[in-house]
Specification:
Elements: E1 3-5, E2 8-10, H1 14-51, E3 57-58, E4 73-80, E5 86-93, E6 96-107, E7 112-121, E8 138-146, E9 167-169, H2 174-181, E10 185-192, H3 213-237, E11 239-241
Helix pairs in contact: 1-3
Length: 248
Amino acid sequence: MYIRFGDWLFRPGRASTVGVLLVLPFLLALGFWQLDRARQKAQLQEAFAERFQQPPVALQEIDASDPANRYRRVSVIGCYDSRHQFLLDNQVHDSQPGYHVLTPLHPREGTAILINRGWLPLGTSRQALPDIMIREESVAVTGWLGQPANPGLRWGEATGGNQTWPRILPYVTYQELAELLGYSLQPAMILLDPESPAGYGRDWQPRFGGSGPERHRGYAVQWFALAAALIMLYVAANTERFPRPKSL
């Protein structure tokens, strides 16, 4: 098969055609996937901005596991489990490594839920853990429903390698933490209001594990550019100038 354009002849080879048909859909799929990820994260940013200033609702009145309630402002009364707290590792603030302090709260009604009490800087080593003790008394907690920014690749056990408390966690899986604690946990956490006492650094913003919608759009442009380059190389490699007959 060939196509002629004036003095040029496009005659693709079978091997190059098969290669393009295999690779091109893959590149386009990656580009559209990145665009979809950008759309999802933009929606989360909009939801955060919309719900940040809303008055709180009682936690027991909504389904904390429903993604539609993410960043919903909530309030709950309960007691902290000070003896069983977690330090979520690899949390960076202003280019400084540290932890997020996660403390289980037992509400007066319903299932326990993790409270993210904010960010603490890493000490001299991970063996020198910060003092995060808190009084186990009835408290009113206000904040926003959220999810931790977990890594894309999960290495090691979710419950951490250390056997002492507080436990250092590489990432959060609610079921495994519930088994460790010996009681159920809701599959969400509350980001403690910056005005509430007994917390640490709390500059809450949607972080998405370090990549926002702009970065995903940039990745999409790169994948689409590779797809376009593949097509141009395919055409260039299989096109030749058609020789004109010599005039007598």
